[in-house]
Amino acid sequence: MQNPKPVVSALGPLPRWIFMSRWLQAPLYIGLIVAQCVYVWQFWTELIHLISMLTIKNVTEVEIMLIVLGLIDVVMISNLLVMVIVGGWETFVSRLELQNHPDQPEWLSHVNAGVLKVKLATAIIGISSIHLLKSFINAAQYDEKTLLWQTMIHLTFVVSALAIAYTEKITQSTPRSHRNGTEPHTGH
Q1: CB under 8 Å, gap of 24 or more: what pairs does 76-79 form?
Q2: pLDDT of 151 strictly over 90
Q3: DSSP conformation letters of 17-41
Q4: Contact 82, 36 (CB under 8 A)
Q5: Please, which residues have CB within 8 angstroms of residue 47's CB and are 6 or more apart in sequence?
Q6: Of 21, 88, 96, 122, which has the fewest Cβ atoms less than 10 A away?
Q7: Confidence at residue 187, expressed as pLDDT on a 0 to 100 scale
Q8: How far apart are CA 130 and CA 145, in angstroms?
Q9: In the prediction, which pLDDT does 186 show?
Q10: Which run of H or E residues covers position 176?
């Protein structure tokens, strides 16, 4: 049995033109895919560097740890790119039609602009955490003021993410009729 085609209402020229403007974002997402390729190149370059370091004697655990944290950082930024590319396209440009696809990410089935913001904020906290950990491991290379500022910036990301998540929770728990400025229908 075929799915019935949705009924599409006719749009006037101006609304149709405004609605089609969402496709102007397509080159931006394609550019992010190119950036993803750059991160894949960066990852392999760093991995080869790590492997070549193992052949050199006197490599410290800290040096290895810093490179591995760099690899994790690249992967986390790459994950962030995937969330922005896939989630942004699905939310702002067009449906990807991935229903029942075995590789559809679980989070994509309920993505919207609010969920995407929360996911991006938590990903940024993860990336910031890796950078902060790298700084703490290599603390001798930084002055106290730099470490303090990095910590403050990280805490700002955490507080911002909490505020975004809390705002999204409030928005989602408010009945739709109140968000639209109308009173809910009580049946009286």
Answers
A1: 76/123, 76/126, 76/127, 76/130, 77/39, 77/127, 78/36, 78/39, 78/40, 78/43, 79/123
A2: yes
A3: HHHHGGGGGHHHHHHHHHHHHHHHH
A4: yes
A5: 71
A6: 21
A7: 46
A8: 19
A9: 47
A10: helix 176-179
Each as own residue / partner, the long-range contacts of residues 153-157 (CB below 8 Å, 24 or more positions apart, any chain) are 153/128, 154/125, 154/128, 154/129, 157/121, 157/124, 157/125, 157/128
For residue 161, the surrounding DSSP H or E stretch is helix 144-173
> Using N-to-C axis directions, what is the helix angle for 144-173 and 113-137, rounded to 10°?
160
What residue has token string 């990280």? 154
Q: What is the pLDDT of residue 54?
A: 84
Segment 13-29, tens digit of pLDDT: 888 888 888 899 999 99
Give 77-113 pLDDT, tens digit per residue: 898 898 889 888 888 888 877 777 787 777 666 677 7
State the first-to-last Cα distance of the chain, in angstroms, to the nearest integer: 41
